[in-house]
Amino acid sequence: MCSLSPLFANVGLPAIFNSHMILQQKAEVVIWGWGKAQEPVSVTTSWNQQTVKTETNPNGQWRVTVNTPAAGGPYSITVQGYNTIKLEDVLIGEVWLVSGQSNMEWSARAGIDNAEEAVRGANHPNIRFFNVQHRTADAPQLDLGGQWVPSTPETMIDFSAIAYFFGRELHQELDVPIGLINSSWGGTPAEVWVAPEVTASDPGLAEAAKKIAPMEWAPHEPGKTYHAMLAPLIPYRIAGVLWYQGETNTAAPQSYARLFPALINRWRSEWGYDFPFYYAQIAPFKYGRPLEGVLLRDAQRKALSVPGTGMVVTSDIGNINDIHPRNKQDVGKRFANLALNKTYGRKNLPFSGPLYREMKTEGSKVRLYFDHAENGLVMKGKQLTHFEIAGEDQQFVPAKARVDGKTLVVSAPGVKKPVAVRFAWSNTAEPNLFNKEGLPASSFRTDDWPIPLQ
Length: 454
Prior knowledge:
The protein is an alpha+beta fold. The protein contains 10 helices and 24 strands. Strands 1, 2, 4, 5, 7, 8, 9, 10, 11, 12, 13 and 14 form a 12-stranded mixed beta sheet that branches.
């Protein structure tokens, strides 16, 4: 409902606020918009019948903060200025922002495993989607394109499949409404998703950004999608972020170890709080240059040093011949278990495969220690694969590895004094090391020796 005075129809809201939206539960939620300069504005929420009043500033902008209750609804929100806007069917629940490039954007219509069954079962009135339209800009924008819609077969088929499967798991486990905001664009490097001064202020990142080749289907200049597809969402209250991106940054993989944490920290700074930031490690694929894919994966592994992050490993559910693996359901489920454990306290749910922690030399052997191996390590097959070992000459040779409870023992006959181990150290490695919970180990290296890209 929107009743307008013919002379003073001025109060407006950004697209992220519309009927059918979901607001974050039990939070201080900012609502903002525009109007005439010095126009009185009041916002009334039906869940508590309280009214918050303000006045637009000289630039015609206003914002208020309202307190949301525990999950529930539907509710309404009435915004009153010289005109009235009423938002209906507003739910309170958990809101997640998902972003990245094509694997995050990938939909059931584009082609996923068991697509027909997934689409047919997508009637979930309390799961809501907001699909941000593709746009670019040279400066931060005030609004963007998109609208909130309930999950139906008709809306789910064109939404992020990973986000949908994630949201469905959360909805089933938490029994609360789930809001999913998808702001992603296939082919985009990370540089376009962060304010351009982040890369411009770092000579190494600025140089790496120049290595991203222009493409016909996606922007590549720093800040372009950030300005148009992310900045207008700030500070819409979110529970956290899911990120699946990195394939395009294999053009300059070694700079990603600085760029990615900088992006995470910048987003948190702009929202004003340290929300959880969970991301997928890119899957094995036949990239052009040797090691560019695994170097990017290793940069992602190292980003776990940023507090409040978590990583989904996909090495066992990828496709080395297809940069868009079609198994999106397991990726979404792994994201969900990560969030359910770390954000929502479901500590019984395993959320990570083995992550390398440290090594110790034992004569001609190396013992490797892992996080997320409390119940032990397992291999799928007759022997462990994809291990290499090197001595002080820095020449890696294939190595044998064996499981010893929660650790691995690695050795090679020709290396008497080993100093370094690498695991799954290639673009296409699909190794067979898992923890007892069935989740795959991330690729890693114990050394920090320079690796020139050919």
